[in-house]
Amino acid sequence: MEFPLTLSTSDDVEDRETEKGRLEEAYEKCDRDLDELIVQHYTELTTAIRTYQSITERITNSRNKIKQVTARALLETQPACGLLLTFAKKHALFLFASMACFSS
What we know:
By secondary structure, the chain is mainly alpha-helical. It is built from three helices and no strands. Helix 1 (2-9) packs antiparallel against helix 2 (13-40). The termini are far apart.
């Protein structure tokens, strides 16, 4: 960014105004050049933007589907996991009780 540095290091007001005018002309030329490029490549630009939007939409939809599948899978497997934990707890208590009986 040369703009702030150039204007701040100028010695007098006249130099600053000259530099400001030069920068404004360069900006306007760049703006015109950009407008011309947009006109020349309008079809390509609109195709690229539409393609980008389509890809973004498909990615968003896929992410939402993954979230739904994951949530559904968690809801479906949660009771089974709880049941397995209950069995494991009862089995551990049984083993503990069996060891206590044999150690006495």
